[in-house]
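Now produce a polypeptide, keeping tokens residue-aligned:
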Amino acid sequence: MTRYIGAIDQGTTSSRFIVFDRRGNIISKAQKEHRQMYPQPGWVEHDPMELLTNTQEVIGAALARANLTMADLAAVGITNQRETTLLWDKATGRPLCNAIVWMDTRTDHLVHRFAQAGGQDRFRAKTGLPLATYFSGLKLLWILENISGAREKAEAGEALFGTIDSWLAWNFTGGPNGGLHITDVTNASRTMLLNLTSCAWDEALLQAFSIPRACLPRIVPSSAVYGEIVTNPLRGTPLAGMLGDQQAALVGQTCFAPGEAKNTYGTGSFLLMNTGTVPVQSKAGLLTTIAYQFGEQKPHYALEGAIAITGALVQWLRDNLNLFDETAQIEPLAASVPDNGDVYIVPAFSGLYAPYWQDDARGVIAGLTRFATKAHLARAALEATAYQLRDVVEAMQEDSGINLTALKTDGGMVANNLLMQFQADILNVPVQRPKMTETTALGAAYAAGLAVGYWRSLEELRQFSSVDKTWAPDLPAERRAHYYKSWKKAVRRSFAWVDED
């Protein structure tokens, strides 16, 4: 009997289930979007029950489309939107509130509270992270301080904290009836509660943030057999892999050697470079994070440049400004003008992430004249993604001492040829798109397959990686310098927009 590997990819805007064969090819997939809720400016929420229901639906749909059952799957892996935080009742399985999404900024006052004693990098030596609204520990603290009864339940172990990997794993392995309360090392490393060296919850950090240990999940490797799924249609299938989405893409791109890097273009964009088995502390505004841990092997670490808004800027032009009806229409619109007309968009909708870490920044459109049209705005939006990535690449080269010679890419925006060409132009290095663009789900599948022996080695996985297209830089040096200088000027205009009071 031919057997396959399944991957749950629960992302910021949709849930997907993809079935892969032994060569990493897609056999079947299904996808369903979920609601984005904005109850107040800067707040972003998801309904955890909707995420769970949608995930169950796409699993059934993908299996049905290929006429498969759980008996055809050797294992299932999970990859998830990172930092999105929820707390749920252990006895009933009901969330105590909506999930607080990674880009939500309601914890900005907590960032300022903790930064007053020791600054923004107060906990960076242990966690690899600056104080920022991004990470899930402060989101959990907000829930404990603002949701009635949350702290009491959490301290008693009656309420469970988790990111989306934990929520799905707990529900699929039994929920209130003995479900596994676990999170993998990659997701745990995004909480600001994990000690990067020990890969364990840090007691001093828990005390500093007033987080009760009783509500925290057990930390597990990214690739291991955790238990069996007990819900249909996957009943009896081993759950054997969990990775945060960006680390999953790093695995899916087979970046297993120090110095290998990838960028994922999605709602935000995330550049990760494998730095080996020793964490590298950043001096240039990047994050130090766990890349993956396979079984009992030592964890591998990565430097990461996290950009909050890239694909989300295209959605904003579509949904808020109504510049076009479908996201794919931005490319021909942007291509209808020869350049950006000296217009720049800094999409600091929820502050700026790497390498600036400016929570008080807000979005700006700079350089407008009567000459500017919606086509120039469209082009400026695509170029904003490329500029932000150059900011991160320069910081990464400064930290690692390694010059990028080519950029591996994945994610939804890699279908945009105009963006990929401009990315190569502004970086002045080739940009490569793989034949398999679903590398996030593929990474979760690889982790699960390695745990059950479906694949036997990392070298075997490397054989499946191939390039679909390469864009070579083709922009005169003086134009490159002008564009980037103007971009940096626009970025400075976005700083300190929000007053502390």
The first strand starts at residue 4 and ends at 10. The mean pLDDT is 93. Residues 374-400 form the longest helix (27 residues). The chain has 16 helices and 23 strands.
